[in-house]
Predict the structure.
Amino acid sequence: MKTTATCPACEQPISIWRIVSAPTPIHLSCSSCKTKIRPKGWTILSLITALAIGFALGFSLSRFYRDDQLSILGAIAIAVGVLIVVEFIWGLLICNRATLEAHSK
Ligand SMILES: [Zn+2]
């Protein structure tokens, strides 16, 4: 299993942390040449995944919160924890499965 991807422009490795810490998983940039990069053909997939996770998380947390099983801080902590895990899995998927392409937008 790889924990780096390769920049399509300069062929330098892009670490999984670079992918995980990107503002969104489809707005990556190379740390060496600053080229904007995205995983080819994954834009729709990642949007659907993000919406599905966001919806499921929001729905279940608001339900727990309303039932007084969770404080607001607890809900935020769980949301942040889940997002970190999801980002990490996403980063691994991009490193191991995605073809990266440069884009100029
Ligand atoms: Zn590069």
Notes: The chain has three helices and five strands.
